[in-house]
Amino acid sequence: MKPAPWIAALLCPLTLLCAVLPATALAAASASAVAQSSRPLAAQIDAIIQQPRYAAADWGIAVVSLDSGRTLYAHQSGKLFVPASTAKLFTAALTLQTLDPQSRIPTRLLSAAAIRHGKLDGPLLLYGMGDPTLGTPGANPDWADNLAAQLAARGIHEVHGDLIADATYFSGPSLGKGWEASDLLGWFAAPASALSVHENTVALTVTPAGRAGLPPQLGFVPDVATPPLTSTLTTAPARTRGDINLYRAPGDTLLHAFGSMAVGTPAQTYQLAIPDPAQQAGNELRAALTRHGVRLTGELRVLTWPERDDTLRANAQVLAEVLSPPVSEILTQGLKRSQNLYLQNLLQLDGISAQAAAASQPGAHTGFLSSEAWGLRALHDFLERIGIAPSSVVMEEGSGLSRGDLVTPAAMTQLLQYIAAQPWAGALQDMLPVAGVDGTLEWRMRDGLATDKVHAKTGSMNHVHCIAGYVTAPDGQRLAFAIMLNNYDRGDGGEPPANRDIDAIVQLLAGWHGAG
After folding, report:
1. Which residue range forms the structural domain that includes residue 31?
2. Would you call 121 exposed, middle or buried from its count of C-beta atoms within 10 A (0-12, 13-18, 19+)?
3. Percentage above 90 pLDDT, the chain
4. What's 200's DSSP letter?
5. 167: which residues sit within 8 A by CB, 6+ positions away?
6. Band of the pLDDT at 103, cuts 50, 70, 90?
7. Angle between helices 498-510 and 23-35 (to 10 degrees)
């Protein structure tokens, strides 16, 4: 998911504008539409989407009954829309078709060098194989110490060679196709890497000094991830409007901080993407080796695509290993939290599996395709097998962060219908946010018929608001729905958020009694 514009604009002044709207303005047409339950469903939905404020916007909606297969409502359902993070449903379905949900992704220490009298006589390879959760709470937070301890337990107290952080298990750029340069400092656009750590982010906390004119304190967590930094930030007099600016040029590692922060202002924390996750992982392991009494005589080197040195892994043995949570848990976190890195890494793992399967087939592709491209090829083949027209789904990457991703609402509901008929349908439904309960829907639809009755994936970016998933009507009938709003500019005229009207439509579906 891409945050609201003020969060996403990390390369611009970071200013949050909070407007307190009257309760009557927030209720507006959406509340009245829900109340008119005696009107046919189509008429109630039409009343919401035909409000004057949406005159220049585009709505695409498809609602189908999973029990009868009947289309209950459609509006521009065959038109392509930017789906934002609802696109993660396609990656999720492909992953459950391709990977064993209970499999775990390893991160390994490898070496082909001989071990003599406690000395590894050659380079040590830190080899990532796509785990996006490494170093997160509940998923190997002490991964580096764990690997170092395993190495020491083998009696190794010296590595006579370099430590090589190898992220070449994925081929291709670390940024998804179509990701925008203006997003790349934000946590939600962290680079995807086969050797990822701490979700490829670092937290920056800015704390004002005690008096004006002094520089604020800047703290990074983890501190080992502190980037090259130049700062001209200053502390301004009390009650001065804050103006904190953070910028990193695309392709550069230097973080620029400038502007001001008023005395007495609470500390502000920003979650930033790190540009080189493999370098970060290597630094953490090097420090852990020292803590566990393993001396490294060489340097830290990093291998990322298009560099590659397969000889390093030839005849190598596994000296230590940590495992990810099961793929099902990674997928659950990726969908509940709308975590872009998780789904982009999973797409590339799907691609590696597809590439391996294709290599044994007659007429196998011999040219270069990135791991992402192999994943998208597998997705294309999957959609063709289940009868979804290629022209109705255009995917550039696996997370929905690209505006080049395009999906018709009809194709989305067709995917949802297919999922509902699979043995893993219940598992996937449980992975989705639940209205008013958890994930990205925790604070939406907390009151009304939809609460705890809707399992759906949200998606949002500037001018895009979407939701797709399942709802159970009062009579027990199961519905699949896709609601996509594109090209909507709320402006600053005091209009209620678009999600209120989207949620109102979902509430109508949750209260549908099979007539109209």
Report:
1. 26-99+331-359+370-510
2. middle
3. 87
4. G
5. 128, 193, 194, 195, 277, 278, 302, 303, 304, 305
6. very high
7. 30
16 in a domain, yes or no? no
| Tokens 């939905």, located at residue | 45
Domain contains 119: no
Site of tokens 């003599």: 116
| Overall residue count recorded for the chain in this entry | 516
Pick left, alpha or beta for residue 83 (phi over 0 → left; psi -120 to 50 → alpha; otherwise beta).
alpha
Beta strands 104-111 and 124-128: pairing type?
antiparallel
Are the beta carbons of 291 and 205 closer than 8 angstroms? no
> Quick count: other Cβ atoms within 10 Å of Cβ 26?
14
Structural domain contains residue 208: no
Please choose, from the candidates 507, 468, 441, the residue with its C-alpha nearest in 3D space to the C-alpha of residue 84. Answer: 468
Judge whether residue 479 has pLDDT over 50. Answer: yes
Query: Could you say which DSSP state residue 132 is in?
Result: S
Q: How many domains does the chain divide into?
A: 1
Alpha-carbon span 436 to 122, nearest angstrom: 55
By the 10 Å C-beta count (0-12 exposed, 13-18 middle, 19+ buried), 461 is classed as buried
CA–CA separation, 196 and 330 (whole Å):
14
CB of 485 closer than 8 Å to CB of 467? no
CB count in 10 Å sphere of residue 476: 8
Q: Is residue 169 part of a domain?
A: no
Q: What is the spatial distance between Cα 311 and Cα 290, in angstroms, rounded to a whole number?
A: 27
> Which pair of structure tokens corresponds to residue 339?
């975590």
Q: How far is Cα 195 from Cα 147, in angstroms, rounded to an integer?
A: 14
* CATH at 486: 3.40.710.10
80 CB neighbour count, 10 Å cutoff: 19
Pairing of the two strands 454-461 and 464-472: antiparallel
Query: What separation in angstroms does the CA of 219 have from each of 190, 203, 283?
Result: 20, 8, 18
* Cβ(455)–Cβ(448) below 8 Å: no
Which residue is it, tokens 């830290």? 300
The DSSP secondary structure of 210-234, one letter per residue, reads: SSTTSPPEEEEESGGGPPPEEE--E
Q: What is the DSSP letter of 447?
A: S
- Whether the predicted model's global pTM rises above the 0.70 cut: yes
Structure tokens at 120: 């590894």
What span, in angstroms and rounded, lies between the C-alpha atoms of 419 and 25? 39
Q: What is the pLDDT of residues 290-312, one digit of tens each?
A: 999 999 999 999 999 999 899 99
